[in-house]
Amino acid sequence: MTSSTIAITRSASPLPDDQRETILDNPGFGKYFTDHMVQIKWTVDRGWHEAELVPYGPITMDPATNSIHYGQSIFEGLKAYRRVDGSIATFRPLENARRFQRSAARLAMPGLPEELFIEAIETLVTVDQEWVPDDIEKSLYLRPFMFSTEVGLGVRPANEYLFLLIASPAGAYFPGGVKPVDVWLSKEYVRAAPGGTGEAKCAGNYAASLLAQAQAIANQCDQVVWLDAIERYWIEEMGGMNLYFVHGSGDSARITTPPLTGSLLPGVTRESLLQVAQDLGYAVGQERINVDQWREGNASGDITEVFACGTAAVITPVGKVKSTDATWEVGAGQSGPVTLQLRDELLQIQHGSRPDPHGWMHQIVAPTA
Ligand code: COI
Fold first, then answer.
1. Ranges of the chain with pLDDT below 50
2. CA distance 141 to 76
3. Which of 146, 187, 240, 369 is the most exposed place for a label (fewest CB within 10 A)?
4. Does domain 7-170 have CATH number 3.30.470.10?
5. Ligand 1 in contact with 77 (CB < 6 A)?
6. What's the gap in Å between 174 CA and the centre of ligand 1?
7. At 163, which helix (H) or strand (E)?
8. Which of 101, 75, 251 is nearest to 168 (CA)?
9. How do residues 7-27 score in pLDDT, each as one tens digit?
């Protein structure tokens, strides 16, 4: 299948402008969806075929569809931004296309060609461009996903899959916006073990996180922090986001993030921030950090700020850390200056009010004259 083969069937009843504008005023996260979606089928005989943009709507599934039972289901998340020159662009979509292929490979699913992934995004964003909000704190969240559609209960890689792309206007991911979150260090549950699926963006990783997240909330925290599966000592991630540590302050601050050991998700925002921080003149490093080093670093003042990053919430400061045997504050429990500077820099690049020296923005709709 070549690109430019996505057939377009427009909705006969798109949401009226005034109702869409009301949603865009206060979209929340993942609550409202645009007028269309893209779907592409895969079968073992035909490969990828029937690529279509169609009106957004429910899909019907046989109760024995095997992804419901055995979880061959992967997804991605990226955003389209309305920029200061009136253009619309997405951020590093090729990175998402590549990670989607790696996730597919890990779950024994077929890889969607990168150009088809990008074309699906370009097609949906172009047709539903009125849904891209005009505000630096808002964007159109794009959710590509794929699951097996073969009917049958045999445990083996399926012979049929469906790729779907849906879009949802997004404001702040966390209800408090950029307010610091309190985190719970989970020693009872792990997110990922060596050789497991931690590097893949698969549905099961998120299902398996929910009980630990519920424990975090039961301990008056907002989010769970994952430790490594073997020693339960090395810091890995926070919820569905990567973590960053700021050592020192001012121009001499050094910014570190745990290395990708195989059990962490290789976040596009994580990777981009290593570069943005360097561009701003900070020293950066990918360094392991354990629970004691985190606590002692905050006590001695070496660690001044900690934040989590991901596509959905961008950058979220960490305010307080709790575990079964200790509780401590990060900095003064406030959003730190380096955290806020990095957040601002990334958002400004994405929204076109700062230069894009690495060519990260992928324009989909041309600037207004
Ligand atoms: C992200 O940080 O973008 C995520 O992966 C969270 C998402 C599952 C809502």
1. 2-3
2. 10
3. 369
4. yes
5. yes
6. 11
7. strand 160-170
8. 75
9. 999 999 999 999 999 999 999
